[in-house]
Amino acid sequence: MWIGIDDTDSRNAGCTTYIAFRIVSTFADRIISLPRLVRLNPNLKYKTRGNGALSIRIGNRTEETKTVIGKSDGKKISLGLQNNEMEPDFPKTYDNSMIEQVVGIVEEYYEKNQTNTNPGIVFSNKKFDTDIYRNALERDIPVDYIEEILKKTDSIYRKIGSGRGIIGAVSSIAWDRNRTTYELLNYKYPRGGYVDDMVKTIIGKIAESYDSTFNNMEMKEGKVCLFPKDRTPVIYGIRGLVFDDLIQIQEEINSRFPDFDRNYMIFATNQGTDDHILRLESGMELRELSSYEITGYVNELPLRKEGGHLFFGIKYGVTDIKAVAFEPSKGFRDELEKLEIGDHVKLFGSYAKGTIKIEKLELIHPSIIYERRSPLCSRCGSRTSNIGSLKYRCIKCGNVMEPEYVKTNYQRMTMKLEPPAYARRHLSMPWKLENASFRSNEYEF
Q1: How far apart are alpha carbons 408 and 124 in whole angstroms?
Q2: Where do transmembrane segments lie in this chain (predicted)?
Q3: First-to-final CA distance of the chain
Q4: Which of 108, 187, 329, 384 minimizes the number of CB atoms within 10 Å of its CB?
């Protein structure tokens, strides 16, 4: 049976991943694949912090081969590998006792009395179509649309409040896992609590020492990016491409700091995959709330405006598009500020109201910079002086000439730019992973 949950937290507290952790801990002997943390459309106004939805797969395990995926109260959580079957044959009837237990866990831990917290819980004996996942990355899906799908598939679902969470719950189950990364989350309920800065740095450096991890630290600033604000049960989260490396990192942390050896779990995720990015082909129209890869030419110089946000313009085909890098991206804006008219660029980001919110940028081919100079008189060879309107007059004979343009020695290189790790979106693929090999076999874990 598939279990999907979403929209249980608020902007200031709670965490849906922790509820998934509690469900997995409760049914540890029946978990048959890694729990899934699936990030959806980052542009929706009613999202909480990262727009992440969770799903879990439960079945009757018969295989002896098991792999440890975490610990709950110091006891190992393991799952049985399902390498020999693509989609297990789940029973057509539902386990009502299990359903009530899951609902009870959600009701215990979700953020109550929050207007924008509207949990949805979904139970399905079959995986949902991948198109639902794609739609959930690219647009705003109505609750009614998902409810119709649930009714047609004889799925069971529970709504709290408006129940908007059923959208993410179904979309998480529908994730195709064409690109998979992993995240190890360490918990302390109800809040992660204070962690000394020196301890944070040591843990960050342990994670950073593995080539397969990403978004651990911002080395230029020495800032550790694994520890969220102390408002949820998450102490830290370590992201990587290799499952076994995350297990090894946690063991290294445990050897130094045994207090972190009690509650943690690894999730399969779509984080850092650019799954939300659509390649903008010729003739395509930009759609509100979708995210794109766009190649064009800078046609308006970068300018900082009130609040520190940096704006510039690009020409895509015959279309003029504004681009913005927001203040929290810090030094990223300093690099973008060096762009020149005519630079050939590829940028990635979400589109809304005529503006691309930049997640990263590649300078494919810098424009050639020319310097305007006063020409020597073509008649007598004397100096000329600027008389305005791009005209120059010979001081000696009065001959009027156009300015001279000379290629400068200023050489600019192609480059790939991105915000610091702490300012990146969950889904955005860091340049470090550009040529990475992502796991694609959903049933390997």
Answers
A1: 65
A2: none
A3: 16
A4: 108
Give the residue carrying structure tokens 């929209």: 7
393: left (phi over 0), alpha (psi -120 to 50) or beta: beta
Question: CA-CA distance, 345 to 355, in Å (whole number)?
Answer: 16
Domains plus CATH for the chain? 1-274+428-445 (3.30.70.2200), 277-368+410-426 (2.40.50.1010), 370-407 (no CATH)
**C-alpha closest to that of 338 among 359, 322, 361:** 361
Which amino acid does the sequence have at 431? W
Phi-psi sector, 14: left (phi>0), alpha (psi -120 to 50), beta: left
335-375 pLDDT per residue, tens: 999 999 999 999 999 998 889 999 999 999 999 888 889 99
Write out the two tokens for 118. Answer: 């509207």
Beta-bridge mates of residue 80: 66
3-class state of residue 179 by DSSP: coil
The encoded tokens of residue 153 equal 């598939």
- Tell me how far apart the alpha carbons of residues 441 and 176 are, in angstroms, rounded to a whole number: 9
Task: Give the ranges where 219-372 is alpha helix by DSSP (H).
Answer: 243-256, 331-336
β pairing state of 213-214 and 66-72? unpaired
| pLDDT score, position 440 | 58
